[in-house]
Amino acid sequence: MNTNLQPAIVLLKDGSEQAQGSSHILTNIKASKAVCDTIKTTLGPRGMDKLLQGQNGTIVSNDGATIMRELDVVHPAAKTLVDISRAQDIEIGDGTTSVVVLAGAMLEAARPYIEEGIHANTIISTFRKGGELAAKVVEAFATTQATDTEVLRRLASTSMNSKLISASSKFLSQLVVDAVSVDAELGIKTELGGSLEETQLIHGIAFKRTFTYAGAEQQEKHFVNPKIALLNVELELKAEKDNAEIRISDPAKFQEIVATEHDIIRSKLETIKATGANVVLSKLAIGDLATQWFADEGMFSAGRVDGDDMKRLVAATGGKVLSTVNGMNATHLGVCESFDEEYLGSTPYNFFRGCPAATLIIRGGAEQFIAETERSLHDAIMVVRRSIKTTNQRVVAGGGAVEMEISRQLQEAAGEIVGKEQFLLGAYGKAFETIPRQLIENAGFDATTVLNMLRTVHAEPDVAFDSTQPESDFNRNRFAGVNIKEEGIINTHAAFVWEPIQIKLNAIQAATEAACQILSIDMTVSNPKHEQAQAQARQDHHAMQQKMANAGITPQAAAAGMGGGMGGGMRHFQGRRGR
Do 56 and 549 meet the contact criterion of CB atoms below 8 Å apart? Predict the structure, then answer.
Protein backbone atom coordinates (compact mmCIF):
# COMPACT_ATOMS: atom_id res chain seq x y z
CA MET A 1 0.00 0.00 0.00
CA ASN A 2 1.39 3.40 -1.00
CA THR A 3 1.42 5.63 2.06
CA ASN A 4 2.91 8.61 0.15
CA LEU A 5 -0.38 9.56 -1.45
CA GLN A 6 -1.72 12.74 0.10
CA PRO A 7 -5.38 13.73 0.12
CA ALA A 8 -6.34 16.47 -2.32
CA ILE A 9 -6.66 19.92 -0.77
CA VAL A 10 -9.77 21.77 -1.87
CA LEU A 11 -9.35 25.55 -1.72
CA LEU A 12 -12.38 26.72 -3.68
CA LYS A 13 -16.07 26.02 -3.41
CA ASP A 14 -17.75 23.83 -5.98
CA GLY A 15 -18.58 25.74 -9.12
CA SER A 16 -15.82 28.33 -8.65
CA GLU A 17 -13.73 29.16 -11.69
CA GLN A 18 -10.19 30.41 -12.01
CA ALA A 19 -7.97 31.65 -14.81
CA GLN A 20 -4.25 32.17 -14.51
CA GLY A 21 -0.95 32.50 -16.29
CA SER A 22 0.23 34.61 -19.21
CA SER A 23 -2.89 33.75 -21.20
CA HIS A 24 -4.94 35.38 -18.47
CA ILE A 25 -2.82 38.55 -18.65
CA LEU A 26 -3.44 38.65 -22.39
CA THR A 27 -7.18 38.30 -21.75
CA ASN A 28 -7.06 41.27 -19.38
CA ILE A 29 -5.18 43.30 -21.99
CA LYS A 30 -7.80 42.42 -24.59
CA ALA A 31 -10.64 43.48 -22.27
CA SER A 32 -8.90 46.78 -21.51
CA LYS A 33 -8.33 47.39 -25.21
CA ALA A 34 -12.08 46.98 -25.82
CA VAL A 35 -12.72 49.83 -23.39
CA CYS A 36 -10.05 52.01 -25.02
CA ASP A 37 -11.43 51.34 -28.50
CA THR A 38 -14.81 52.59 -27.31
CA ILE A 39 -13.51 55.91 -26.05
CA LYS A 40 -10.50 56.73 -28.25
CA THR A 41 -12.55 58.22 -31.10
CA THR A 42 -13.67 61.02 -28.75
CA LEU A 43 -10.13 62.35 -28.30
CA GLY A 44 -9.24 65.84 -29.45
CA PRO A 45 -10.98 68.79 -31.13
CA ARG A 46 -12.33 66.59 -33.92
CA GLY A 47 -13.34 63.73 -31.66
CA MET A 48 -16.67 62.05 -32.23
CA ASP A 49 -19.54 61.97 -29.75
CA LYS A 50 -21.18 58.99 -28.09
CA LEU A 51 -24.91 58.52 -27.68
CA LEU A 52 -25.52 56.54 -24.50
CA GLN A 53 -28.91 55.07 -23.70
CA GLY A 54 -29.22 53.75 -20.18
CA GLN A 55 -31.03 54.06 -16.90
CA ASN A 56 -30.21 57.77 -16.75
CA GLY A 57 -31.90 58.48 -20.06
CA THR A 58 -30.20 59.56 -23.28
CA ILE A 59 -26.80 61.22 -22.99
CA VAL A 60 -24.80 62.72 -25.86
CA SER A 61 -21.21 63.33 -24.82
CA ASN A 62 -17.56 63.07 -25.78
CA ASP A 63 -16.37 63.64 -22.23
CA GLY A 64 -14.21 60.70 -21.22
CA ALA A 65 -15.24 60.62 -17.57
CA THR A 66 -18.94 60.73 -18.44
CA ILE A 67 -18.69 57.92 -20.98
CA MET A 68 -16.65 55.72 -18.66
CA ARG A 69 -19.13 56.33 -15.85
CA GLU A 70 -22.18 55.53 -17.95
CA LEU A 71 -20.81 52.39 -19.60
CA ASP A 72 -21.99 49.30 -17.76
CA VAL A 73 -18.66 47.46 -17.91
CA VAL A 74 -18.27 44.24 -15.94
CA HIS A 75 -14.76 42.91 -16.56
CA PRO A 76 -12.89 43.11 -13.23
CA ALA A 77 -9.43 43.97 -14.61
CA ALA A 78 -10.73 46.62 -16.98
CA LYS A 79 -12.35 48.41 -14.03
CA THR A 80 -8.95 49.93 -13.42
CA LEU A 81 -9.38 52.13 -16.50
CA VAL A 82 -12.67 53.48 -15.21
CA ASP A 83 -11.00 54.23 -11.89
CA ILE A 84 -8.15 56.23 -13.43
CA SER A 85 -10.58 58.19 -15.61
CA ARG A 86 -12.67 59.05 -12.56
CA ALA A 87 -9.57 59.97 -10.56
CA GLN A 88 -8.27 62.22 -13.36
CA ASP A 89 -11.64 63.98 -13.48
CA ILE A 90 -11.68 64.57 -9.73
CA GLU A 91 -8.04 65.56 -9.39
CA ILE A 92 -7.51 67.62 -12.55
CA GLY A 93 -10.85 67.90 -14.38
CA ASP A 94 -9.46 67.30 -17.87
CA GLY A 95 -7.45 64.65 -19.70
CA THR A 96 -9.89 61.88 -18.81
CA THR A 97 -9.87 60.42 -22.33
CA SER A 98 -6.11 60.76 -22.79
CA VAL A 99 -5.31 58.82 -19.64
CA VAL A 100 -7.43 55.84 -20.74
CA VAL A 101 -6.08 55.86 -24.31
CA LEU A 102 -2.52 56.10 -23.01
CA ALA A 103 -2.99 53.21 -20.57
CA GLY A 104 -4.46 51.09 -23.36
CA ALA A 105 -1.48 51.87 -25.59
CA MET A 106 0.95 50.85 -22.85
CA LEU A 107 -0.84 47.53 -22.40
CA GLU A 108 -0.84 46.93 -26.14
CA ALA A 109 2.90 47.69 -26.19
CA ALA A 110 3.44 45.01 -23.53
CA ARG A 111 1.32 42.36 -25.27
CA PRO A 112 3.91 40.96 -27.74
CA TYR A 113 6.49 40.59 -24.96
CA ILE A 114 4.01 38.71 -22.77
CA GLU A 115 3.37 36.41 -25.75
CA GLU A 116 7.12 35.85 -26.13
CA GLY A 117 7.34 34.71 -22.51
CA ILE A 118 9.00 37.70 -20.86
CA HIS A 119 7.99 37.82 -17.21
CA ALA A 120 5.41 40.46 -16.34
CA ASN A 121 7.53 41.82 -13.48
CA THR A 122 10.34 42.65 -15.90
CA ILE A 123 7.91 44.64 -18.03
CA ILE A 124 6.40 46.35 -14.99
CA SER A 125 9.75 47.50 -13.59
CA THR A 126 10.80 48.87 -16.99
CA PHE A 127 7.50 50.67 -17.50
CA ARG A 128 7.77 52.30 -14.08
CA LYS A 129 11.28 53.44 -14.90
CA GLY A 130 9.93 54.79 -18.18
CA GLY A 131 7.21 56.67 -16.30
CA GLU A 132 9.83 58.44 -14.21
CA LEU A 133 11.81 59.39 -17.32
CA ALA A 134 8.66 60.62 -19.06
CA ALA A 135 7.82 62.88 -16.11
CA LYS A 136 11.32 64.38 -16.30
CA VAL A 137 10.86 65.05 -20.02
CA VAL A 138 7.59 66.87 -19.33
CA GLU A 139 9.22 68.95 -16.58
CA ALA A 140 12.02 70.00 -18.94
CA PHE A 141 9.59 70.57 -21.83
CA ALA A 142 7.28 72.90 -19.88
CA THR A 143 7.44 76.67 -20.22
CA THR A 144 6.52 79.23 -17.59
CA GLN A 145 3.82 81.79 -18.24
CA ALA A 146 2.64 84.59 -15.97
CA THR A 147 -0.77 83.59 -14.63
CA ASP A 148 -2.76 86.50 -16.01
CA THR A 149 -6.28 86.59 -17.41
CA GLU A 150 -5.17 85.91 -20.99
CA VAL A 151 -3.15 82.82 -20.06
CA LEU A 152 -6.05 81.43 -18.03
CA ARG A 153 -8.44 82.11 -20.91
CA ARG A 154 -6.22 80.19 -23.32
CA LEU A 155 -5.98 77.24 -20.94
CA ALA A 156 -9.77 77.18 -20.62
CA SER A 157 -10.16 77.48 -24.38
CA THR A 158 -7.82 74.53 -24.99
CA SER A 159 -9.91 72.42 -22.63
CA MET A 160 -13.10 73.35 -24.51
CA ASN A 161 -11.71 72.81 -28.01
CA SER A 162 -12.38 69.08 -27.81
CA LYS A 163 -15.99 69.54 -26.72
CA LEU A 164 -19.32 70.22 -28.41
CA ILE A 165 -18.98 73.87 -27.35
CA SER A 166 -15.69 74.43 -29.19
CA ALA A 167 -17.28 76.96 -31.58
CA SER A 168 -18.08 79.20 -28.60
CA SER A 169 -14.85 78.56 -26.69
CA LYS A 170 -13.66 82.18 -26.91
CA PHE A 171 -16.86 83.53 -25.34
CA LEU A 172 -17.21 80.78 -22.74
CA SER A 173 -13.55 80.72 -21.72
CA GLN A 174 -13.81 84.36 -20.66
CA LEU A 175 -16.91 83.54 -18.61
CA VAL A 176 -15.04 80.68 -16.92
CA VAL A 177 -12.07 82.89 -16.01
CA ASP A 178 -14.38 85.60 -14.65
CA ALA A 179 -16.32 83.01 -12.64
CA VAL A 180 -13.27 81.35 -11.11
CA SER A 181 -11.77 84.74 -10.27
CA VAL A 182 -14.56 85.26 -7.74
CA ASP A 183 -13.22 83.99 -4.43
CA ALA A 184 -16.31 81.96 -3.60
CA GLU A 185 -18.07 78.75 -4.56
CA LEU A 186 -19.38 78.77 -8.11
CA GLY A 187 -22.93 77.66 -8.79
CA ILE A 188 -24.15 76.39 -12.16
CA LYS A 189 -27.78 76.54 -13.26
CA THR A 190 -29.28 75.38 -16.55
CA GLU A 191 -32.25 76.87 -18.36
CA LEU A 192 -33.73 75.29 -21.47
CA GLY A 193 -34.27 77.75 -24.30
CA GLY A 194 -32.27 80.46 -26.01
CA SER A 195 -28.82 80.01 -27.51
CA LEU A 196 -25.49 79.11 -25.96
CA GLU A 197 -24.36 82.72 -26.41
CA GLU A 198 -27.09 83.74 -23.95
CA THR A 199 -25.23 81.91 -21.19
CA GLN A 200 -24.42 84.48 -18.55
CA LEU A 201 -22.39 84.93 -15.40
CA ILE A 202 -24.14 86.46 -12.42
CA HIS A 203 -21.90 88.07 -9.80
CA GLY A 204 -24.02 86.78 -7.00
CA ILE A 205 -26.56 84.00 -6.52
CA ALA A 206 -29.41 83.10 -8.84
CA PHE A 207 -32.01 80.33 -8.84
CA LYS A 208 -35.42 79.61 -10.29
CA ARG A 209 -38.37 81.06 -8.44
CA THR A 210 -39.91 78.39 -6.28
CA PHE A 211 -43.57 77.38 -6.23
CA THR A 212 -45.73 80.29 -5.10
CA TYR A 213 -49.29 80.80 -3.90
CA ALA A 214 -51.81 83.48 -4.77
CA GLY A 215 -50.53 86.89 -3.77
CA ALA A 216 -46.96 86.32 -4.93
CA GLU A 217 -47.42 88.46 -8.03
CA GLN A 218 -48.35 91.40 -5.79
CA GLN A 219 -45.09 91.21 -3.86
CA GLU A 220 -42.20 93.60 -4.39
CA LYS A 221 -39.66 92.25 -6.89
CA HIS A 222 -36.80 94.71 -6.43
CA PHE A 223 -34.87 95.79 -3.34
CA VAL A 224 -31.67 97.76 -2.90
CA ASN A 225 -29.51 96.56 0.01
CA PRO A 226 -32.12 93.99 1.06
CA LYS A 227 -32.26 92.41 4.50
CA ILE A 228 -32.61 88.67 3.93
CA ALA A 229 -34.20 86.29 6.43
CA LEU A 230 -33.14 82.65 5.95
CA LEU A 231 -35.47 80.19 7.65
CA ASN A 232 -36.18 76.53 8.10
CA VAL A 233 -39.69 77.30 9.32
CA GLU A 234 -43.07 76.35 7.87
CA LEU A 235 -45.32 79.40 7.51
CA GLU A 236 -48.47 77.64 6.37
CA LEU A 237 -51.84 76.55 7.70
CA LYS A 238 -52.28 72.87 7.04
CA ALA A 239 -54.11 69.80 8.23
CA GLU A 240 -52.64 67.81 11.10
CA LYS A 241 -50.37 64.98 10.03
CA ASP A 242 -51.88 62.70 12.66
CA ASN A 243 -55.52 62.14 13.49
CA ALA A 244 -56.74 64.86 15.82
CA GLU A 245 -60.11 65.52 17.38
CA ILE A 246 -61.42 68.60 19.15
CA ARG A 247 -64.73 68.44 21.00
CA ILE A 248 -66.60 71.72 21.40
CA SER A 249 -69.96 72.46 23.01
CA ASP A 250 -70.40 75.87 21.44
CA PRO A 251 -70.17 76.27 17.63
CA ALA A 252 -68.76 79.76 18.17
CA LYS A 253 -65.66 78.16 19.67
CA PHE A 254 -64.78 76.76 16.25
CA GLN A 255 -64.20 80.25 14.90
CA GLU A 256 -61.99 80.99 17.88
CA ILE A 257 -59.85 77.94 17.11
CA VAL A 258 -59.44 79.01 13.48
CA ALA A 259 -58.65 82.57 14.55
CA THR A 260 -56.05 81.27 17.00
CA GLU A 261 -54.28 79.38 14.22
CA HIS A 262 -54.21 82.54 12.13
CA ASP A 263 -52.92 84.53 15.10
CA ILE A 264 -50.04 82.08 15.57
CA ILE A 265 -48.98 82.50 11.94
CA ARG A 266 -49.38 86.29 12.08
CA SER A 267 -47.31 86.42 15.26
CA LYS A 268 -44.46 84.69 13.45
CA LEU A 269 -44.80 87.03 10.49
CA GLU A 270 -44.78 90.10 12.75
CA THR A 271 -41.62 88.82 14.43
CA ILE A 272 -39.92 88.43 11.05
CA LYS A 273 -40.94 91.91 9.94
CA ALA A 274 -39.75 93.44 13.21
CA THR A 275 -36.17 92.39 12.41
CA GLY A 276 -36.18 94.67 9.37
CA ALA A 277 -36.22 91.83 6.86
CA ASN A 278 -37.78 92.56 3.48
CA VAL A 279 -36.81 89.30 1.69
CA VAL A 280 -37.89 86.08 3.41
CA LEU A 281 -36.68 82.66 2.23
CA SER A 282 -37.48 79.32 3.80
CA LYS A 283 -36.57 75.70 3.10
CA LEU A 284 -40.14 74.80 4.06
CA ALA A 285 -43.45 75.95 2.64
CA ILE A 286 -44.71 79.52 2.87
CA GLY A 287 -48.49 79.30 2.45
CA ASP A 288 -51.05 81.56 0.83
CA LEU A 289 -51.87 83.43 4.06
CA ALA A 290 -48.23 84.34 4.68
CA THR A 291 -47.62 85.10 1.00
CA GLN A 292 -50.48 87.60 0.90
CA TRP A 293 -49.44 89.12 4.23
CA PHE A 294 -45.89 89.70 2.97
CA ALA A 295 -47.31 91.25 -0.22
CA ASP A 296 -49.44 93.66 1.84
CA GLU A 297 -46.37 94.62 3.87
CA GLY A 298 -44.22 95.31 0.78
CA MET A 299 -42.00 92.27 1.32
CA PHE A 300 -40.90 89.34 -0.84
CA SER A 301 -41.10 85.68 0.18
CA ALA A 302 -40.21 82.29 -1.29
CA GLY A 303 -40.69 78.87 0.26
CA ARG A 304 -39.24 75.44 -0.48
CA VAL A 305 -35.85 76.92 -1.40
CA ASP A 306 -33.35 74.21 -2.34
CA GLY A 307 -30.91 73.30 0.41
CA ASP A 308 -27.83 73.89 -1.76
CA ASP A 309 -29.05 77.35 -2.73
CA MET A 310 -29.71 78.12 0.93
CA LYS A 311 -26.16 77.08 1.85
CA ARG A 312 -24.73 79.37 -0.82
CA LEU A 313 -26.89 82.23 0.45
CA VAL A 314 -25.59 81.71 3.97
CA ALA A 315 -21.98 81.83 2.75
CA ALA A 316 -22.51 84.81 0.44
CA THR A 317 -24.84 87.05 2.47
CA GLY A 318 -23.69 86.28 6.00
CA GLY A 319 -27.17 85.29 7.17
CA LYS A 320 -28.06 82.41 9.45
CA VAL A 321 -30.66 79.72 8.83
CA LEU A 322 -33.06 79.67 11.79
CA SER A 323 -35.38 76.82 12.72
CA THR A 324 -37.57 79.10 14.83
CA VAL A 325 -38.47 82.78 14.77
CA ASN A 326 -38.29 83.02 18.55
CA GLY A 327 -35.43 85.32 19.47
CA MET A 328 -34.89 86.31 15.85
CA ASN A 329 -33.22 89.71 15.38
CA ALA A 330 -31.40 91.83 12.80
CA THR A 331 -28.04 90.12 13.43
CA HIS A 332 -29.43 86.93 11.87
CA LEU A 333 -30.17 88.60 8.52
CA GLY A 334 -28.10 88.39 5.37
CA VAL A 335 -27.29 91.32 3.10
CA CYS A 336 -26.33 91.97 -0.53
CA GLU A 337 -26.36 94.95 -2.88
CA SER A 338 -29.63 94.19 -4.65
CA PHE A 339 -32.42 91.66 -5.07
CA ASP A 340 -34.45 91.27 -8.26
CA GLU A 341 -36.90 88.83 -9.76
CA GLU A 342 -36.37 88.70 -13.53
CA TYR A 343 -37.41 86.41 -16.35
CA LEU A 344 -35.09 84.25 -18.41
CA GLY A 345 -37.30 83.37 -21.32
CA SER A 346 -40.54 82.40 -19.63
CA THR A 347 -38.95 81.29 -16.34
CA PRO A 348 -38.74 83.68 -13.36
CA TYR A 349 -35.40 83.76 -11.51
CA ASN A 350 -34.43 85.32 -8.20
CA PHE A 351 -31.14 87.26 -8.36
CA PHE A 352 -29.07 88.25 -5.34
CA ARG A 353 -26.35 90.51 -6.74
CA GLY A 354 -23.41 92.20 -5.12
CA CYS A 355 -22.29 89.41 -2.78
CA PRO A 356 -19.16 87.19 -2.85
CA ALA A 357 -20.55 84.46 -5.09
CA ALA A 358 -20.94 83.65 -8.78
CA THR A 359 -23.55 81.73 -10.75
CA LEU A 360 -23.30 80.52 -14.34
CA ILE A 361 -26.67 80.18 -16.06
CA ILE A 362 -26.30 77.93 -19.10
CA ARG A 363 -28.76 78.32 -21.97
CA GLY A 364 -29.37 75.99 -24.90
CA GLY A 365 -32.00 74.52 -27.16
CA ALA A 366 -31.80 70.86 -26.08
CA GLU A 367 -31.45 69.18 -22.71
CA GLN A 368 -28.66 66.87 -23.89
CA PHE A 369 -26.70 69.81 -25.28
CA ILE A 370 -27.09 71.79 -22.06
CA ALA A 371 -25.97 68.79 -20.00
CA GLU A 372 -22.87 68.33 -22.18
CA THR A 373 -22.14 72.06 -21.94
CA GLU A 374 -22.26 71.83 -18.16
CA ARG A 375 -19.82 68.91 -18.19
CA SER A 376 -17.48 70.76 -20.55
CA LEU A 377 -17.53 73.91 -18.43
CA HIS A 378 -16.79 71.81 -15.35
CA ASP A 379 -13.59 70.54 -17.00
CA ALA A 380 -12.51 74.06 -17.97
CA ILE A 381 -13.31 75.41 -14.50
CA MET A 382 -11.20 72.69 -12.86
CA VAL A 383 -8.25 73.49 -15.15
CA VAL A 384 -8.42 77.22 -14.43
CA ARG A 385 -8.89 76.69 -10.69
CA ARG A 386 -5.71 74.65 -10.46
CA SER A 387 -3.81 77.14 -12.61
CA ILE A 388 -4.93 80.24 -10.73
CA LYS A 389 -3.33 78.97 -7.51
CA THR A 390 0.18 79.64 -8.85
CA THR A 391 1.76 82.99 -9.70
CA ASN A 392 3.59 81.52 -12.68
CA GLN A 393 1.80 78.72 -14.51
CA ARG A 394 3.87 76.01 -16.16
CA VAL A 395 2.31 74.84 -19.42
CA VAL A 396 3.17 72.36 -22.14
CA ALA A 397 2.41 72.55 -25.84
CA GLY A 398 -0.56 70.38 -26.71
CA GLY A 399 -1.63 68.76 -29.96
CA GLY A 400 0.60 65.74 -29.32
CA ALA A 401 3.81 67.80 -29.19
CA VAL A 402 4.84 66.78 -25.68
CA GLU A 403 3.97 63.11 -26.36
CA MET A 404 6.18 63.09 -29.46
CA GLU A 405 9.03 64.56 -27.44
CA ILE A 406 8.56 61.92 -24.72
CA SER A 407 8.55 59.17 -27.34
CA ARG A 408 11.75 60.47 -28.97
CA GLN A 409 13.70 60.87 -25.75
CA LEU A 410 12.63 57.53 -24.28
CA GLN A 411 13.55 55.67 -27.45
CA GLU A 412 16.93 57.41 -27.43
CA ALA A 413 17.38 56.40 -23.78
CA ALA A 414 16.47 52.81 -24.68
CA GLY A 415 19.30 52.72 -27.20
CA GLU A 416 21.82 53.37 -24.43
CA ILE A 417 20.94 50.26 -22.40
CA VAL A 418 21.33 46.58 -23.19
CA GLY A 419 19.19 43.52 -22.66
CA LYS A 420 15.46 43.04 -22.69
CA GLU A 421 14.89 46.41 -21.02
CA GLN A 422 16.07 48.13 -24.21
CA PHE A 423 13.13 46.81 -26.20
CA LEU A 424 10.66 47.27 -23.35
CA LEU A 425 11.60 50.91 -22.74
CA GLY A 426 11.46 51.61 -26.46
CA ALA A 427 7.99 50.06 -26.67
CA TYR A 428 6.84 52.10 -23.67
CA GLY A 429 8.10 55.30 -25.29
CA LYS A 430 6.50 54.47 -28.63
CA ALA A 431 3.14 54.04 -26.85
CA PHE A 432 3.03 57.82 -26.36
CA GLU A 433 2.71 58.27 -30.13
CA THR A 434 -0.83 56.92 -29.76
CA ILE A 435 -2.03 60.37 -28.65
CA PRO A 436 -0.94 62.32 -31.77
CA ARG A 437 -1.90 59.36 -33.98
CA GLN A 438 -5.43 59.35 -32.57
CA LEU A 439 -5.71 63.13 -32.95
CA ILE A 440 -4.77 62.75 -36.62
CA GLU A 441 -7.17 59.87 -37.26
CA ASN A 442 -10.05 61.65 -35.50
CA ALA A 443 -9.45 64.68 -37.72
CA GLY A 444 -9.82 62.45 -40.79
CA PHE A 445 -6.21 62.80 -41.94
CA ASP A 446 -3.62 60.23 -43.03
CA ALA A 447 -2.01 59.20 -39.75
CA THR A 448 1.06 57.63 -41.36
CA THR A 449 1.98 60.76 -43.34
CA VAL A 450 1.46 63.30 -40.56
CA LEU A 451 3.09 61.12 -37.90
CA ASN A 452 6.18 60.70 -40.08
CA MET A 453 6.33 64.49 -40.45
CA LEU A 454 6.25 64.83 -36.66
CA ARG A 455 8.98 62.21 -36.22
CA THR A 456 11.18 63.99 -38.76
CA VAL A 457 11.01 67.43 -37.12
CA HIS A 458 11.24 66.09 -33.56
CA ALA A 459 14.44 64.26 -34.54
CA GLU A 460 15.99 67.76 -34.63
CA PRO A 461 14.28 69.38 -31.63
CA ASP A 462 16.45 72.50 -31.42
CA VAL A 463 16.16 73.52 -35.08
CA ALA A 464 13.92 76.51 -35.85
CA PHE A 465 10.44 75.30 -36.75
CA ASP A 466 9.66 78.29 -38.98
CA SER A 467 12.70 79.91 -40.59
CA THR A 468 10.63 82.94 -41.64
CA GLN A 469 9.95 83.85 -38.01
CA PRO A 470 12.38 85.63 -35.66
CA GLU A 471 14.79 83.50 -33.67
CA SER A 472 13.14 82.44 -30.42
CA ASP A 473 13.31 79.68 -27.82
CA PHE A 474 9.68 78.90 -28.65
CA ASN A 475 10.30 78.65 -32.43
CA ARG A 476 11.68 75.14 -32.18
CA ASN A 477 10.81 71.77 -33.69
CA ARG A 478 10.19 70.32 -30.23
CA PHE A 479 6.91 72.25 -30.13
CA ALA A 480 5.58 70.66 -33.33
CA GLY A 481 2.15 69.09 -32.97
CA VAL A 482 -0.86 68.11 -35.03
CA ASN A 483 -2.59 70.78 -37.10
CA ILE A 484 -6.22 69.65 -36.93
CA LYS A 485 -7.41 72.43 -39.27
CA GLU A 486 -5.17 71.44 -42.15
CA GLU A 487 -3.46 68.11 -42.75
CA GLY A 488 0.00 68.79 -41.43
CA ILE A 489 1.91 70.02 -38.40
CA ILE A 490 2.06 73.30 -36.52
CA ASN A 491 3.97 74.97 -33.70
CA THR A 492 1.32 74.36 -31.06
CA HIS A 493 3.08 76.57 -28.51
CA ALA A 494 2.99 79.53 -30.88
CA ALA A 495 -0.65 78.69 -31.67
CA PHE A 496 -1.45 78.92 -27.92
CA VAL A 497 -2.51 75.29 -27.69
CA TRP A 498 -1.45 75.09 -24.05
CA GLU A 499 -2.21 72.60 -21.34
CA PRO A 500 -1.27 72.83 -17.64
CA ILE A 501 1.64 70.60 -16.78
CA GLN A 502 -0.43 68.94 -14.04
CA ILE A 503 -2.69 67.31 -16.65
CA LYS A 504 0.21 65.55 -18.36
CA LEU A 505 2.07 64.55 -15.21
CA ASN A 506 -1.05 63.10 -13.60
CA ALA A 507 -2.05 61.29 -16.81
CA ILE A 508 1.38 59.68 -17.22
CA GLN A 509 1.51 58.53 -13.61
CA ALA A 510 -2.06 57.21 -13.59
CA ALA A 511 -1.79 55.45 -16.97
CA THR A 512 1.51 53.81 -16.05
CA GLU A 513 0.24 52.58 -12.69
CA ALA A 514 -2.96 51.26 -14.28
CA ALA A 515 -1.03 49.37 -16.95
CA CYS A 516 1.34 47.91 -14.35
CA GLN A 517 -1.54 46.87 -12.12
CA ILE A 518 -3.31 45.05 -14.96
CA LEU A 519 -0.05 43.36 -16.01
CA SER A 520 0.52 42.19 -12.44
CA ILE A 521 -2.77 40.23 -12.31
CA ASP A 522 -2.02 36.62 -13.26
CA MET A 523 -5.07 34.98 -11.72
CA THR A 524 -8.76 35.72 -11.35
CA VAL A 525 -11.03 33.55 -9.22
CA SER A 526 -14.76 33.92 -9.74
CA ASN A 527 -17.53 32.52 -7.58
CA PRO A 528 -20.65 31.90 -9.70
CA LYS A 529 -22.97 32.27 -6.71
CA HIS A 530 -21.44 35.62 -5.89
CA GLU A 531 -21.72 36.72 -9.52
CA GLN A 532 -25.36 35.66 -9.63
CA ALA A 533 -26.04 37.66 -6.47
CA GLN A 534 -24.37 40.71 -8.02
CA ALA A 535 -26.35 40.27 -11.24
CA GLN A 536 -29.58 40.04 -9.27
CA ALA A 537 -28.64 43.15 -7.28
CA ARG A 538 -27.99 45.05 -10.52
CA GLN A 539 -31.30 43.87 -11.94
CA ASP A 540 -33.15 44.97 -8.81
CA HIS A 541 -31.37 48.32 -8.88
CA HIS A 542 -32.30 48.90 -12.53
CA ALA A 543 -35.91 47.93 -11.80
CA MET A 544 -36.03 50.43 -8.93
CA GLN A 545 -34.59 53.18 -11.14
CA GLN A 546 -37.23 52.44 -13.77
CA LYS A 547 -39.97 52.72 -11.16
CA MET A 548 -38.53 56.05 -10.03
CA ALA A 549 -38.43 57.27 -13.64
CA ASN A 550 -42.05 56.22 -14.17
CA ALA A 551 -42.97 58.14 -11.04
CA GLY A 552 -41.30 61.25 -12.40
CA ILE A 553 -38.27 61.04 -10.09
CA THR A 554 -34.91 61.48 -11.79
CA PRO A 555 -32.48 58.81 -10.50
CA GLN A 556 -29.06 59.99 -9.46
CA ALA A 557 -26.15 58.64 -11.48
CA ALA A 558 -24.70 55.72 -9.54
CA ALA A 559 -20.99 55.14 -9.35
CA ALA A 560 -20.49 52.80 -12.26
CA GLY A 561 -18.65 49.50 -12.04
CA MET A 562 -16.58 48.18 -14.92
CA GLY A 563 -16.45 45.31 -17.29
CA GLY A 564 -14.57 44.26 -20.38
CA GLY A 565 -17.68 44.70 -22.43
CA MET A 566 -20.84 46.69 -22.05
CA GLY A 567 -23.35 45.01 -19.76
CA GLY A 568 -27.03 44.47 -20.26
CA GLY A 569 -27.88 47.91 -18.89
CA MET A 570 -26.24 49.69 -21.84
CA ARG A 571 -26.65 49.24 -25.56
CA HIS A 572 -23.62 50.14 -27.64
CA PHE A 573 -23.98 51.81 -31.05
CA GLN A 574 -20.90 52.55 -33.10
CA GLY A 575 -20.67 54.05 -36.56
CA ARG A 576 -19.06 56.68 -38.73
CA ARG A 577 -20.02 60.30 -38.98
CA GLY A 578 -18.61 63.06 -41.11
CA ARG A 579 -17.63 66.39 -39.69
Answer: no
